[in-house]
Specification:
This protein has 20 helices and 30 strands. 44% of the residues are buried. Zinc ion is lined by residues 457, 459-460, 462, 477, 479-480, 482.
């Protein structure tokens, strides 16, 4: 650690100043003086005084022309013991800020997200035995035990040595102080042990082999994006593992981005089986110490392979050689607060800046990616078949108009007779059933039978969702987290026992399964059922171990899992995602249902999918029934092209929020009035958002569309600069929006 000991006036070199980017949402970098004798190349991570506190930032450029008077100049206080941020990473930060219209400091904050990792390393250093017992030092029995267990001369942590020798930590430190032991660095923890590229190479099928060869050839050969387009169960993971192996052979690091890191237990096991050790992981559930160690290991180049959520894209890799985006079509890659960016798109940007290959893997690629592939910007490798001869499942539609669910003694039911029969047959054979409904809780709406009052969130334009936890009924807002006990009487008319639950959530479907198949072992798989990643992993294990017969799950189950015993997938409501949807509703529904269907029959047993619908002729539903992805994509593309929607045009959303609705509406109108006239540029709105109140804020939206070849950012920037925004209001710009609520 370097500290400025002298006062700034004493050690100032009047000419030497640098521009430091601080991790704050401010418009510009700040200038600081460089203490004499310090070398601070661009990218150096430094601690600087900012408004009465000290923050870690990064030297971004020189500041020769800066005119701050010497008396006002503040000085850099400290240099972090971490390699400087690479030119590529700095360029990436600039690029993301420019593209998303975010403050550059807000993007840098995602890079320097773990300030503890920048503090001097005080990590647990270990001890070894001295060469010989030092003369004059007393030999107690405790010390003799210590001496003996350190015989191998491998460094050991103080705690470990104390435990093995059955002495206190103080005894270890005592002998260390007297020269009987010597400090020694401990080897890096096992989690960052280097994976072995050749630990256990799988025997690839011919198509897998050809695909892997293409990906391997790309390693070390510069920037290129390849779409790995393979049906569910085709072995996409095995194939991109070969590219990861090649990166390891060449001494580089690989990053694998996944949409839902809590659910990667199976993936981690497969990685360990293939490479001998576990990879590093990155997600919001890490402990502070894990975050710190992982950040450092990535920056030092020790962590060779990292699997992470989208935020991993901003880590300071020392030698990044490959980025894989698994399930690239997933909307979860879009960050919806703070800096609004799309992880897949920014992965491609980082790949291009780092001059490394990017692999996008999916069984249902996004229309954006397919358009890029068709235009020749991305290469494509295809895995047309499931691995090991497993067949694709048969998809049948259950027409709810012809065969509606029968009313039972408990009231309404949701599973129609053909699906109920299929569940019975599957259970009879000892195989597993997955019932899919993308709705958490018991019922999405509660109303009063007496007066019609609907239970609504006090903070949001949203119905409260009923959850049942044993006998207790709770109401929850899925937007802001507001929760309350189900009241005893209707808050509007005072009627008792008047509430009815409307519509099903997964808990209600599980209840119906319990009534119809009391013997079946049930499991609800939804994000709110587990406290942490460990809980979800245990649930998935119990499915794989066939300890569960019927799984009722939300989209949490759609992704990537492989359950050989699962042969029936029932989609409770195939229409739900299509109602009142945004521009991607059809695409998303197709992807989700196709993925869910892909869970069926992945082993030796044939799989079957039944989708309940009121509208079998609906194009998305019909395409799913026929398994005709190409027809669906073609129709969807034609529709989008005609309307100039992504990927054939550009969109940006502007969201105006204020506590006072009139104020938000007025700002939105001002913005509309000031909207620039330019070729092809169009404005929709302003209009109250669908979620017109969220967490107590009133929201209005505008939507800008432009042809693909128009650069929207400069236009948006000058437009917004021309409208005064009161401090009490917030205006957010969402480039390439995915949420339209
Ligand atoms: P996808 O991601 O394309 O849906 P996976 O990569 O999950 O498919 O593979 C499906 C299953 O097949 C996994 O259990 C995987 O381990 C297995 N598998 C795929 N390819 C091979 C192979 N070449 N050798 C052995 N097992 C394979
Ligand atoms: Zn709410």
């Amino acid at each position: 650690m370097i500290r400025a000991h002298a006062t700034p006036e004493e050690n100032a070199d009047a000419g030497r100043r640098v521009a430091v980017r601080v991790p704050l949402p401010v418009g510009a970098d700040y200038t600081y003086g460089v203490p004499e004798g310090w070398e601070l190349p661009p990218g150096t991570v430094v601690k600087v005084p900012v408004g009465g506190r000290e923050l870690w930032g990064a030297v971004w450029a020189g500041a020769e022309g800066d005119a701050t008077p010497a008396s006002k100049l503040k000085f850099i206080a400290e240099v972090a013991p971490t390699p400087p941020l690479s030119p590529a990473l700095r360029k990436f930060v600039d690029w993301v800020a420019e593209y998303t219209l975010s403050a550059p400091g807000a993007v840098l904050r995602m890079v320097l997200s773990v300030p503890a990792a920048l503090e001097p390393v005080t990590g647990p250093s270990g001890v070894v035995r001295a060469d010989a017992w030092p003369a004059g030092v007393r030999r107690t029995p405790a010390r003799q035990r210590l001496w003996a267990i350190l015989e191998s001369r491998e460094p050991m942590s103080v705690a470990e040595a104390a435990r093995l020798a059955d002495v206190g930590d103080a005894a270890v430190r005592g002998l260390l102080g007297e020269g009987g032991l010597v400090s020694a660095a401990l080897p890096p923890p096992e989690i960052f042990a280097a994976p072995d590229a050749d630990a256990a190479c799988p025997v690839l099928g011919p198509e897998q082999d050809a695909a892997a060869a293409v990906l391997k050839r790309g390693i070390g050969a510069g920037f290129a994006v390849t779409l790995l387009d393979g049906v569910t169960g085709s072995g996409k993971t095995e194939v991109y593992f070969e590219a990861v192996a090649e990166v390891l052979r060449q001494g580089g690091q690989a990053l694998v981005l996944v949409p839902e890191i809590a659910l990667t237990a199976q993936w981690l096991e497969r990685f360990r089986a293939r490479f001998g050790v576990a990879p590093a992981v990155w997600h919001s559930g890490l402990t502070p110490a894990q975050r710190r160690d992982t950040w450092r290991a990535v920056a030092q180049g020790e962590a060779k392979v990292l699997i992470g959520a989208r935020s991993a894209l901003f880590l300071p890799f020392a030698a990044l050689g490959l980025i894989v985006v698994d399930e690239e079509h997933e909307q979860a890659f879009k960050q919806e607060d703070g800096v609004l960016y799309h992880g897949r798109d920014m992965a491609v940007v980082r790949g291009s800046i780092e001059a490394i290959p990017v692999v996008l893997a999916s069984a249902t690629p996004s229309l954006e990616t397919l358009a890029n592939a068709r235009a020749g910007r991305y290469a494509t490798v295809v895995l047309p078949r499931r691995h090991g001869g497993a067949e694709m499942p048969t998809v049948d539609l259950v027409d709810l108009r012809k065969t509606p669910p029968e009313t039972g003694d408990r009231g309404r039911n949701w599973l129609a007779p053909p699906l109920v029969a299929a569940i019975g047959e599957t259970l009879e054979k000892g195989e597993q059933v997955l019932l899919y409904l993308n709705r958490r809780g018991y019922a999405p709406l509660t109303l009063c039978r007496a007066c019609g009052h609907r239970m609504q969130c006090p903070q949001c334009t949203a119905w409260l969702v009923e959850h049942r936890d044993g006998g207790r009924k709770r109401l929850q807002c899925h937007h802001c987290g507001h929760a309350e006990r189900m009241p005893d009487v209707c808050p509007s008319c005072g009627a008792e026992d008047s509430f009815v639950a409307c519509g099903p959530g997964v808990e209600r479907i599980a209840e119906e399964v319990a009534a119809r198949f009391p013997e079946a072992r049930r499991l609800i798989l939804a994000s709110d059922q587990f406290s942490g990643p460990g809980g979800a992993a245990a649930a998935l294990d119990s499915i794989a171990a066939r300890e569960v017969d019927v799984i009722v799950g939300t989209q949490m189950v759609a992704k990537g899992h492989h359950f050989p015993g699962l042969t029936l997938v029932g989609v409770v409501d195939a229409d739900v995602g299509l109602a009142g949807g945004d521009l991607r509703a059809a695409e998303r529904t197709f992807q989700l249902l196709h993925q869910v269907a892909g869970r069926a029959g992945r082993g030796d047993l044939h799989g079957r999918v039944m989708m309940q619908t009121y509208d079998p002729a609906q194009p998305v539903i019909a395409a799913l029934a026929k398994g005709d992805r190409d027809a669906f994509v073609a129709a969807e593309q034609t529709g989008r092209k005609a309307l100039g929607l992504p990927p054939f045009g550009r969109l940006a959303a502007v969201i105006v929020a204020a506590k006072d609705d009139a104020q938000a509406a007025a700002i939105a109108r001002d913005l509309a009035r000031a909207f620039p006239k330019a070729e092809g540029l169009r404005l929709y709105g302003p209009a109250p958002a669908i979620l017109s109140r969220l967490r107590g804020w009133s929201r209005h939206r505008l939507l800008v569309s432009a042809p693909r070849d128009v650069r929207l950012q400069p236009l948006l920037r000058s437009w917004l600069a021309g409208v005064a925004i009161p401090r009490a209001a917030r205006v957010r710009i969402d480039i390439d929006p995915y949420s339209f609520l």
